[in-house]
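Suppose a colleague, Dr. K., hands you the sequence of a protein chain of 138 amino acids and asks what its three-dimensional shape might be. Before reaching for any lab equipment, you can write down a predicted structure in token form. Begin with the sequence itself:
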Amino acid sequence: MKTIGRFEKVALPELDIFDIDAKIDTGADASAIHCEHIRIDEKNQRVSFYLLDPSHPSYHHKSFNFPIHKIKTIKSSNGTKEERVSIRTRVRLGDKTYLTSISLANRESMKYPMLIGKRYLSKRFLVDVSQKYIGNIL
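The predicted structure, expressed as tokens, is then:
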């Protein structure tokens, strides 16, 4: 297993997104990405959304349209429950790329635009919480 830190740079190649900051959260079940204007087209089972990352102007307000993977109720870190839609896409961390589910969420009150949860991490990575940004060092 590869060792990573509590914060890492990740890429979402199918969304043409690279070098985005992510918080590695072993307490979170699923991964999430910061976006807004989430529109669900139930008839066609698709979701459209705008990615938000002010630190990357080329990604900020970039529009996407994906097949819906799931819609489920998520309990956030502050205890509130909300219905969220998720998509399936590949996430690259260092030299490893895996298909995973990512929930679409408004993370404006969070410091990092992306959260990587334990479903992505399990049996693939060890997290050294005393380190940051070590996953891209080969």
